[in-house]
Amino acid sequence: MSLFLRIATFPGEMRIAVTRNDTLLDFALWRPAAPDMVGSVYHARIEALTPAMGGAFVALGGNQSGFLPLQNNAPKLTEGQAVTVEVSRAAQGGKGLRLRLLAADVASEQKGLVTPGPTPLARLAALWPTAAVVVDSPAAAALIPPALRDRREPGFAPYPDSIAAACDALEEPLVALPGGMEATITPTPALIAIDMDAPPAQTGHTKQTAQFAANRDALPALMRQIRLRNLSGAILIDPAGLATRKRHALLEPVNAALKPDPLNPRCLGITALGLIEIVRARIYPSLPELLNSPHGRALRVLRHILVHAPQTTQITGGAGIIRALEQDPEAVADCARQLGHKLSLHTNHALPDLTWTVQES
Q: Which PANTHER family does this one have (predicted)?
């Protein structure tokens, strides 16, 4: 079997890659200490009705809350009412959990989690039901649920070098595309901007014909990058070196390249400025958001120490990075276990919030 679901283990995080031969087909981060909560079901209580926002804030228990949008035909709710809800969108972009109302036979007086949502591993395993599971460590093997254990390959194996390089490249904003094309991905609070660049035309065709072919041939790889990085919401793509009238001819290959995506993104057309406009369901946090969050930066510190500074005994950092490390004590403990010695944390309020240094023995 050449289709694999590979798990690489790091402190506080597992990186899950779906591969066929040397090609990366799908990717997700699994952070047990920070689940995205999507699909989780709660017995909850209406905390505050907000007609101006078209919904209600809902207390989930354990100091957690979410926003429940209410359509005009939704049942009438009152503040304090017990409800059963499901998380439909993870907290992201500075906004909290988004919820949907479930029918419940009996309203519970107790707030709290009823059923946790699927993990990233479970989601990818369902999307790729014939993929064999390959793990790199006993720690990863221990987290495989019973339903997937018969799909696990025996033994332990790290990522192949080519797959590790492809996963590492997902952290970079610059994407290499076929035909010498490149794309620069820039997330903003409002949208994802993607700027495509092409090398000078080297063929005997006219420049516009060559540029059109280069853009067209690069689109499938670019759409795969959008999926691998889970870029969502409004996405605007600026093709390279094409007159606006020629860009409309790219709509058919764009739509074809979007079809394999399970989130069913839609191409809305070409804007007046010649930008390809795509909308993709915003359900899970994007990879750039996960990597650049305080938690993501904290886990990057631990990976750096394991690879580049294994003699580290103390991490000194600004308040933000130390707080993020303290909120995932199991990741810090796992790093210390792999180092073979104690790892302490120290806050230096003179340092910027997310900066850090290490002290070695």
A: RIBONUCLEASE, RIBONUCLEASE E_G-LIKE PROTEIN, CHLOROPLASTIC
Crossing angle of helices 319-326 and 294-308, in 10° steps, is: 80
Average of per-residue pLDDT across 268-294: 96
Task: For 293-360, give the CATH class.
Answer: alpha beta
Q: So what's the pLDDT on residue 209?
A: 82
Helix axes 319-326, 329-339, angle to 10 degrees: 90
Residue with tokens 């014909």: 209
In which element (H, E) is residue 9 found? strand 3-10
CATH architecture of the domain 41-113 equals Beta Barrel (2.40)
Among 227, 172, 176, which residue's Cα sits nearest to residue 199? 176
Specify the pairing of strand 312-317 against strand 356-360: antiparallel
pTM (2 d.p.):
0.91
pLDDT computed for residue 85 by the predictor: 95
- pLDDT surpassing 80 at residue 184: yes
Residue 322 DSSP symbol? H
Q: Are 356 and 343 in contact (CB under 8 A)?
A: no
3-state secondary structure 221-278: HHHHHHHHCCCCEEEEEECCCCCHHHHHHHHHHHHHHHCCCCCCCEEEEECCCCCEEE
Write out pLDDT tens, residues 190-225: 999 999 998 766 555 567 788 899 999 999 999 999
Q: In sequence order, which residues have a C-beta less than 8 Å from that of residue 259 and are 6 or more positions away? A: none
Q: In sequence order, what are the residues at sequence separation of 6 or more whose Cβ sits closer than 8 angstroms to the Cβ of residue 270?
A: 244, 247, 248, 250, 251, 276, 277
As a whole number of angstroms, the distance between CA 361 and CA 336 comes to 14
